[in-house]
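Quick start: read one record
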Amino acid sequence: MLKGVFVGFICVFSVGLWSTEIIDPDIREVLVFGTKAEKIKLPGSGTQIDSEELEKQDYSDLNQVISSAPGVYVREEDGFGLRPNIGIRGATSDRSQKITLMEDGVLITPAPYSAPAAYYITNASRLHAVEVLKGPSAIQAGPHTVGGAVNLVTRPVPTQDLTEVELTTGTDSFHKIAGSLGRVNDNFGFILNALSYGSDGFKQLDGGGSTGFIRNDVNFKARWELETKPKQSFTVKLGFAGEDADETYLGLTDSDSQRSHARRYPASKLDRFESQHRQIHFNHSIEFNPEVSVDTKIYFNKFHRSWNKFSGFIDGPSAQDVLRNPESYVSAYETLTGSRDSRVGYFTDLTIDVTDNNRKYTSHGIQFELNNIISMGSVDHNFTIGFRYHEDDVRRHHQQSSYLMLSGEMISDGISRPYKTNNYAQTEAIALFVANEVSWSDWTLNVGVRYEDIQGSVDNKLSDVVSSNEQTVTAPGLGVHKQLTGSLGLLAGVYKGFSPSGPGKSGVKSEESTNIEYGFRFTSKEILGELIWFRSDYDNLLGRCRASDSDCDIGQEFSGGDVKVRGLELIVQSQFDLSDSHLVTGKLNYTYSESEFETTFFSQFSQWGLVREGDELPYIPKHVGRVQLGVESEKWSMDVSLKHQHEMREEPGSGDIAEGLKTDTLTQLDMSFTWFFNEATAFSLLVRNATDKSAIVSHRPYGARPNLPRTILGRVKYRF
């Protein structure tokens, strides 16, 4: 089919608001953000979260890290960010499946085409920077560009020898042990990062039992620069990550959540998530001269997960119905809570379904990028051409087991159950990206186009049916920036967004969108700011069935028709010297969003149901904001962050949202204090959710789910 075709990926004209100049060559290969001076004139919107900002709060939760970028929505699930749900500018946050997630410029989710749900993502504790790409810059990433893309940048090979150890402990037996060893010898250098963190969990399981997790991560990166003409370098990255978590799909009724925020029902006692991730990435860069360079990346990722979890009743009401209306399903509710034994053989069989969702993923490919800078008098052209060839696949083996609730304990009924799902899905994709950034006088113009050819198939082992499909898309983008005055610039852009349907979905149209943005960028010696209006017009919004959805097959897709999303983003950053020895930093970001379905229809997709024209989309908060203030000196530093996310409806609708069909509005205060004892040693006190605010952050997958309560951590960091 597509074998032997090289496919490319380019990182070209992405933008941000704040950064220091990148000097290290290993970072320069990856980052799509330029220097602060360059970014002032870049067309389009985007945000970079740099290493200094990551260090201030030291989040282990990617949801918390990325929430500092405007235009981003997150939906909490477990309190620790183990399963990120990230959306951008209206793209659904469900398992982050409608955004492109990358690590060092390489697709990183287990199977970004065949099964894009982010059951694996780079651990936040080993990040050097985060790039959020929006507007026209999003089309460079692919395949999911309707909202944007996120590039997670890992720690580079150091420019000098490095040895670091970090120890953290705190509430609920949270612990983190991290270490980095870096060595440089002439033209060769490497860095070895090791990380282990976990917690006993903050939830309390009825009858006792573990609700915690542990994650382990080892990453090795080596770089070799050749003393040749043309200049060349080789980088290899090897990584392993594992997780063992007593996590569940099963939440609570709203009334139980209000009485005991952190309770867990005994029906979830057997739930456990286990995973392993392995990666090998190889990068070759060659610079023929300062104007011409070529970058080639070869990558291989392998991921295996097993999630043995409560999945409802064998022959009974859905878990969502029971938890939403426990008074209508008294027997089923009391079975979940362990206060009543399972009733078998009645009108409703209350045998509990525990299914091991066992999946194996692989993804691999090669990508190539050519950059060529040409000056023609007063006009500069920066040409980029990229290709990528990619393959990925997923094997699903979902084995059902059945249990009875007896005296508050889960007891196997001994019945051999069939597979619920047994299939193999695969995708081959080629992509091409071409762009030209033109700069002259006070103008910067970027014109680009992305092309993708995607071929997928699904082999259903249970029905012995093989289905296949092919999708092609041509997605252009245009961005422009005009410097109006020395401090004020105007930017605008338009691009075509795209999110492919799953493999084998013949007759299902891909999701497409027309995305527009325009606004202003202000820069001065001490202040940077952006005010952006955005609009996304979706053609054929797609909903994808997951294991938590009822009355549909996993991976089945549903059309939501035309949808509009529009909003406003504001970001302001400032820093100034309070005195000769004190630096004050501040950051404000705010996002306003509104959405609506443009047609009336009924969908069998459980997340939609009956939709009326004008209804709002689920899980898009109208207001999201964050204020951050920091003070730094030679001996100490302080950082305070106040985050706010408005309530979100969980079903399409308009007007006031009924109780049980929405998340709570959540305002959270985080604080960090660091004391520098000397150049080598620092101690930090970190407080999450300092006011101990409790909230229901989701009713998915099953029932009300709590946020992380107040957490206090102490961290010691020592550099040899």
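Confidence is low (pLDDT under 50) at residues 1-31.
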